[in-house]
# Entry
Amino acid sequence: MGTEKSEEFYDNKFTHENDYHEHYKDSWYFVHWTQIIKYLKRFNEPKILEVGCGTGQLAEYLFDEGYKNYVGFDFSKKAIEIAQKKTNFNFFVGNALDPSSFKIDYDFIICTEVLEHIKEDFKVIENIKIGTNIIFSIPNFDEVSHVRWFLSERQIKKRYYRLINIKNITRIGNIYIVLGERDNFAPNIVQKILASREEISFESFTKRFKHRIKNMLKSKAI
Ligand SMILES: C[S@@+](CC[C@H](N)C(=O)[O-])C[C@H]1O[C@@H](n2cnc3c(N)ncnc32)[C@H](O)[C@@H]1O
# Structure
């Protein structure tokens, strides 16, 4: 498992790694971004805020597809410098953990390959307005800057179900692309138990449930 990296790490990456300078059609991520465009087509004139937009490759794809309402931010100054040369979209340097980065007019969040780089990913999501449509992508492989990665759709739902109402997950190669809506779900005890288990049979569920009730009754009796 990797560790969370600073702005300087990404500045250096974007200065020296060619992948982030390629035209979007030549990028390894092109097929994933095409899935994002497919999801986006379900929405009418979204006002997009891209969180951790990197060097603006996806932004350029969105621009060519005719999207007009777009703002992107990233905490890497180098990334923003490169992004600003690609389109006439607005970009700014901002941290996803800082609520002030979200103080603009948007109704759609795109956040690709960013959450797995941030320890406090829940804080990032909490900065998003309730009811906002979200597309995010996360990997199922480890890397030096990945603080987590996912083995299954279930793991993704388990981590994010309280904060995002997940509507669709598409896996392409090593990347999961998730469509959802910012939510604030307070699970009841049964939902918590269900979410806490990887696999659950009816038998193990009833056994665990009976055990909890017994403990609850016992603690009330004292
Ligand atoms: C793997 S790159 C992905 C870039 C782009 N979204 C893409 O899909 O190509 C991760 C990006 O997240 C940005 N990032 C990481 N932590 C961040 C934070 N706390 N606030 C804003 N951007 C962050 C990095 O600077 C980098 O651009």
